[in-house]
Amino acid sequence: MMIVRPLKSNFKWLFLFGTLITLFSILISPPVSAVERVSATHTGSITLVHYNQYKGKRRGACIKMTPAIPTKNRWACVDMGMPLGKEVDALIREAFLHKLSCRIRVSSMLAGDMQGIDWIDCRHP
User: Fold this and answer.
1) I need a surface site. Which of 75, 84, 106, 111 has the fewest CB within 10 A?
2) CB of 46 within 8 A of CB of 123?
3) Residue 70 lies in a domain
4) How far apart are alpha carbons 29 and 107 in whole angstroms?
5) pLDDT score for 51
């Protein structure tokens, strides 16, 4: 009869290898600021709509809402380069004019330290 003993040294090497892989993946991941990590769905009323071109970049409506959007500067903007940028921009304008309740998702960073609006839906309160 043959007795098989576990090789303790192999377990140590596997643990060390797993730890090194974890540390390596942490080190090579790009740094992300706290603002860039924001990815939130927010519901409220649009209280302010602002248009400008930030340093030549084409940006649509920037909005503030009540209750406040949970971003660094409380603003969220439409990226006109996104596939439905014009439609989102038009919906924001209509929602502001008709005082609709809207739900938005902000996550991407735009020029000027603004959070981008990924999607929006609005309804009568």
Assistant:
1) 84
2) no
3) yes
4) 19
5) 87
Q: What number of H helices and E strands is found in the chain? A: 2, 5
Structure tokens at 11: 């377990």
In this structure, the dihedral spanned by the alpha carbons of residues 100, 107, 74 and 76, taken in order and rounded to 10 degrees, is -50
**CATH number of residue 92's parent domain:** 2.40.50.50
Name, in order, each residue with C-beta under 8 angstroms of 71's C-beta and a sequence gap of 6 or more.
Answer: 35, 38, 106, 115
- For residue 5, give the amino acid letter: R
- Are 76 and 95 contacting, i.e. CB atoms less than 8 angstroms apart? no
**Entry field: residues in the chain:** 125
Q: Regarding beta strands 76-79 and 114-123, do their DSSP bridges make them parallel or antiparallel, or are they unpaired?
A: parallel
Per-run averaged pLDDT (10 residues), the chain, 125 residues:
57 62 60 50 93 73 91 86 88 93 85 81 88
- Domain count within the chain: 1
| Full residue range of the structural domain in which residue 104 is found | 40-123
Write out the two tokens for 108.
Answer: 């991407």
